[in-house]
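Worked Example 4.2. Consider the chain below.
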Amino acid sequence: MREKFGFLISIGILLWGTCFCSFVGKNSCLKVTSLWSINGDFDSAVGNFGVHRPGGVLNGTVVYPRPNKRGCKSFDEFHISFESGHAGCPIVLLVDRGDCFFALKAWRAQRAGAAAVLIADDINEPLITMATPEDGQGHGDYEQDITIPSAFISKSVGDRIKEALSNGDIVDIQLDWREESLLRPNEQVEYEFWTNSNYDCGPKCDSQLEFIENFKGAARILEQKGYIRFTPHYMTWYCPEAFVLSKRCRSQCINHGRYCAPGLDRVYDGKDMVIQNLRQACLFKVANESGKPWLWWDYVTEFANRCQSKDKYTKECADKVIRSLDIDLVKIDNYIGDTEADVENPVFEAERHAWIGKGFRGDITILPTLLINNIQYKGKLKKGAVLKAICAGFQETALQSFCLNEVLPDIQSTGRSLEPLYMPISSA
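Applying the procedure from the previous section yields the following structure tokens:
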């Protein structure tokens, strides 16, 4: 299934000197509703980089640069700044797809002062999710520092905006995330973390493990106080029936090709990671049944630290960690079952069911992925940012009694101001 998930862009052409204000403060703007020649709501797709605003809106004026239309070069080379538009409204930079990664376009726009970036497709096709470049593709670390929202729009919508701008019109837009509100009707926030047990795949895996290590203390407190309900999830693939007995499938899969993962290195096969993923899922199930779901965080960090080199992915090392945490090893092994048998595993079947998109959420396609109240979190995978996103998921009473008095002051004391927050995927 392909998810059609993004946010709406409301577009209107306004008279010079007017804007929609995206702030409440000392300044104000006069809204004049006239010349609505291309007004309307248009679908767009958020990128999996940058900072988005679930439950909120951002208003600004669109600028399409004459030089550097694809946004791949630094705008400093052209002596261009996008600090503010007419009447002090924020600038939403429109650039064309092509020549460089989506994330680099957003980074260039941010460095030039834009409040958000729209990236227009260069061909007529369904919307895609803009992904960060894969490790090893020669990119820098700039995607970790992107703090503005981004949206991918169709070629037809981009062409209409550019035509209006070329005619001298002022195009003000509103990026609307209100349908993505994280609010839950009760006072408990639910969040899911889609992950895997391979922590040696490069910078992304390093940041994932760093997040788990840093967040486990907060996760324990949140769970013990009953504020949240956490569930880890694991993604698997299957081997086509015709290839189940092939060497490749046997080395990458368990349970007769039903649950697979790509090979890791010369020492460990994909099936080693699949079994460890299954062990972690079963461990969480047992810990949750015992009323201590936070033990999952302890196990994952201890396993990563203690089971390295030749002990990596071995049952012996994993069992030592499990025993040290006083978790029922017999129950875990029973849930794991016989990984060589030609049978379904109930735990992994439940994971496969959870992986499939429901409602407005599509299939999970990127690891790691964090969901808060069934909304994909688009912020940085950092303790402070994730805590703030979880705060946004509480109803007002819980938000006042917990987040405002306990969590947010702690975040503010760090000096950070972070805001949280699948279709086909591409990085460029």
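Residues 134 and 227 are 35 Å apart (CA to CA). The two ends are 22 Å apart (CA to CA). Compare this with Example 4.1 before moving on.
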